Structures are given as structure tokens and as C-alpha cells.
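Section 3.1: Structural characterization of target chains.
Under the original work plan, the team committed to producing a structural model for every single-chain target entering the pipeline before any wet-lab resources were allocated. The record below documents one such target. The sequence was received from the expression subgroup and is listed exactly as submitted; it comprises 289 residues.
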Amino acid sequence: MKKTKVDAEKRGTPEGDMLPEGTSVIRDIEYKNAGGIKLMMNIYSCGGSGKRLPLIMYMHGGGWTNGDRTSCRRAVFLLKNGFTLASIDYRLTDSATFPAQLEDCKAAVRFLRANREKYDLDTERIGVCGHSAGGHLASLLGTTGENSGFDRGDNLNFSSQVQAVCNFYGPGSMTGLIKSARLAGAFDTVQVAEKLIGGPLEEQEEIAEKASPVRYVHTNAAPFLIIHGDKDASVDVSISKSFHKALLEEGVESHLHIARGGAHGGNLLETPEIEEKVVSFFNRHIGQR
């Protein structure tokens, strides 16, 4: 296990120029081998307090087609606010369709719990966060915690349940995403979503439903914070409104923040106000005890 401290002036890594000074990184930890595809994670921490900090696992965006564990620029603000961050790879759609991505994310949660002593982690309560495709996967983790059907592979004696979810504009419904994107003429969104489910919606509607977090909403789902811009041309904000409503109807704690004028991945969703909301939410649910 190699832990490196990121130098403020000589970072030289894809995410390095965004990391707070003094960030310690354990890089390239293999958490799963999926048929010869090595899936890695990086673990970031900042502060050096000597205490185990609350843990947030991050899933990158990229339409399920691109990105990797270093694509975590939008989450590094959590390091400055007292959290450890584990940023993970998952199989992209060039190599596998759904549910491979969810299986990978669940394997990562189990790996973190199985290796809590090795990496000095607090895994009693784990938060998850993701943007776009990563927000979709974070939402699936939050709603399928009691569904063992997606737990495959190693460390099956450890739980893949998570205790808090922050979803930045990830779709709560894959069926709803494809239908709304077609109506809006957002054909790039249709293309990447149908690649995830393995074909056109008309042929893969059952898979689309299985890939929809809203399908699994139940009373014991994790608490949610959903952040979405009302000018999102890729994932219509109505999908998050419906998902939020479904969570509330089941008695699940859910908070929906709609950023006025916010586009998909736009700067209006990266403000100090929003960062404060995210930090406050995670502090309430997985903060230091």
C-alpha cells in the first residue's frame, strides 16, 4: 500500500490540481477483477487528524461510457470538510451493460468494509455521491441496499448498504430518461442510455426498469439529497422531481434542490451554497460521532 501526499505545486495527476494541499492519496487499489478487467479505486484524505473520518464513495459521470477513478474533480470539496473520499472505477458500456455497473459499485462498498483496518477507514456508515451517470449509480445503491440480487463476487459477508446518497442530476428512471430525451431531441442522451441497457427501449424495457432507482424505492431506503438544474437539457429535471416524490411517499427522507438556470454539469451546480448543503447533509447522516 503506497500512500502519497500531493504537493501543492507538483501534482501531475489528472485530479491533482484540484486536490487540497496536504491531501494523502492511496492510488490504484484493485477492488475487483471482472473477467480480466481490473477495477481500481483511489482513497483520498486530508487533514491528518489521526481520527478515522466519515467515508464517502464517489462514482464519476460520463454517460456510463467514459471517465475513471481520477474523474472526481467535482467531489474534492468534501476533503476540505472532514470526509475521506474513495473514488472508484466501474465497468463502462464498451465492456458491459447493466447491471454490471451496479454490481461493481456494490462490490466496492463491500471491499471498503472488508478492508477497513488495512486502509484505516470508518465504514460503519458510508455515504455515496455521484454526478450524472454516477448519480444514477449512487441512487441505485441507496435504494437496493436490501436487494442481494446485485451482490456478486467477493466479500459477500459484508454489507453493500449505504447510509446517505447525494445525487447530482442522475436519472431516477431510465425509462423516463429515454422517453423524455426523445421528446426533447436529446439524442446523445438516448444513445448512451440505450447503450447502458443493451439496445432500444422498445426491446429492453425490462432492463430499463431494472436500471431505474425509482423501481426499488422502499421505506428503508437511504436518505437522499438530489441536486438538479432546471435548464438541464440531458436529464430533464422532471425526472428528479418524480423520484423525490416517490421517496417521500414511502416515508424516505429526501431533499430536492433545484438550481435555477442550472444546466447539466454547469457551474451553477458547483456553488458554495450547494457545497454547504451537501456537507450539512452528509454530516447529519454519516458525520463523526
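Residues 100-114 form the longest helix (15 residues).
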